[in-house]
Amino acid sequence: MKLLLIEDDLQAAEYLIKSLRDIGYSVDHSPDGRDGLEKATQRHYDVIIADRQLPHVDGLTIITTLRERNDRTPVLILSALGTVDDRVHGLKAGGDDYLTKPFAFAELLARIEALSRRGTALAESSRLKVADLELDLLARKVTRAGQNIDLTTKEFQLLEFLMRRPGQVVTRTMLLEGVWNLHFDPQTNITDVHMSRLRNAVDKGFARPLIHTVRGAGYVLKE
Amino acid sequence: MAATSTGLQSSERMTDSGHPDAVGPTTRPRPRMRLSTSRLATLFIVIFAVGVTLVLTAVYFLTARVLDNEVDVVINSEVNNLVDDYSRGGLLQLVATLHRRSDGWGRSGAVYLLVENNGFPIAGNLARWPQVVSRYNDWVEFEIDASDAGGAVAHPVRAQIIRLPGNRWLLVGTDILDRSRLASRLRTAMFWGVGASVLLATLFGLSYSRRIRRRVKAVAATCESIMAGNLSQRLPVEPAHDEFDALATAVNRMLETIEQQTETLRTTFDSAAHDLRAPLYRARVRIEESLQHEGLTEGVRETMDATLAELDRVQRTLGTLLQIAQTDGRGRDVPTEDVDVAALAQELVELYQPEAGNRNISLDYQGDATASVHGNRQLLAQAMVNLLENAIKYVPEGGKVQASVRTIGDSLTLSVADNGPGIPDADRARILQPFVRLERDRDQVGSGLGLSLVAAVMRLHRATIELLDNHPGLLVRCVLPIRKQLTAGFANDADAGSRA
To answer: Which of A54, A75, B235, B239 could bond A33 through an S-S bridge, CB–CB 3.0 to 4.6 Å?
Structure first.
């Protein structure tokens, strides 16, 4: 997978690139907005990670320019401004996701992963299936190995969110944003309790668990 | 459980009631501006009318007195001359003088009549003794018919009657037609003068009071808009250059300074955010990168994890602080939409129920099913989350927390009540300020910013926040106006966050 990192903080960029390459991504780096825009328009990337405040051309301008050229490459905005309105402005400009610095590397990874798969998302289907776990969106029914699983509305939404991203790491923040539409971090790790309830419902009594905790990052639903 | 529920019932009662006195600061009366200006105008008109009437009346009476005096002095001296003639030259001399003088009628307007005691006229220019007049020493006024240009006209006459030795009576008077005409003209002039003045005063007073009301209204509207965060607003200055304009100019200068300072503060905050977050970011990235190395001892790993946790804490505090500052300073930039606060509260209660359950705390929602205000969903959610987290954090095991949203009139009351330790009276006001924490909570994790952010969010929504005693426990009550837009001119776009 090819990434473009547009970041003027060279030290941070250096570490990020190294960590991303260690995982196996191919990463290009631009230290300023003009260079970044040039690279973004000339080559194909799976995901562009752009800092919001950049020399010459700022992150939001890069996104709007790309969108005007009908370039739908997913863009993840990094910003030191973390307020509600900043995030909204970023997403309105055509950004696909927004991450406030400093962030955990695991959070960044999970977001890149999610963005890169966005294009290839399964066609809108009324049934989701991971291993022997099936979720019927129309009937609002969940079965595992043919057995009915009773879930509350929120648990159902939570499971749907995970099943739409099989094998992907989903962070707590992504859950709060995606399931509860809350774009801030509460003090307590409030999603953990809900995940453990869901896990109880889905995995209890089955030999092979489907919901896994990824240490320091979040959760993943996989066989 | 039974003991604790009594505490919550009191909260229910308080939130349920919707008493005007229970709502407190929301029922702030609008200032009665209309009354005070029109009262002022009426007072002005009355004072003006009374004043003008008094002045004109005084002028009238003084003028009349002067004219009367003049007439009386002339008559008096004439009488003295005639009495002199009579005493020196006897009746013949007096009659001669009277004949001579009577010819002057019409020129001087003088009236003479000398009669015997039986009323028989001896000399003078009056045909007979006037009927109405008795024969005593006195001043009299009567009317005579005098042929004027064109016909007989009744002329008023003022005269003195003197009894002469020898039992004769002398009447000396003068025509006062001009004087009474003047007086009547004066009265007419006075009537019209007073009328016109009162009319003018009324018109002027009304327009003046309307003008004051209009300007005060304009100032109030501008101030409201400024309070909502639109600091670029200025009070209107009219070309009149009156006291209002002087005041507006001074206030505008003050606003200019405040706007500059706020702008400076805002840029300082933005650069502080950037400059503080950048090193935090680098430190984080570096530690995380190091953690990926193989062969670290468990001790080093733990230290690095703990450092990361500390960094997170610093970042969170910094973030909250910036958010408070920006919520207060950026009213007009915040995207707003219609937010169903009741639905949001129920959703958040549901979100926190398992967490509360783990601590054996009962958390529930009581109130309207839906209740909307115009505001920012994320900020309102964050405020509610802070209140719920606070309550769950401080309520002891087995306690109760209850959230409630209700529409009362044109405001929405959001409250979170618990039966925990509460906040002592003395600390309630200052606990809303940043970094203020209760002494007894020193051991608890927290930045002392949670309630400050709630207060900032409420300020942004023009809401009031009250911390009350829940007997026992804490009752936080926020009253949000429903119909008010946050500011007049900012984008009404829905929160783009809902796209996720």
So the answer is: A54
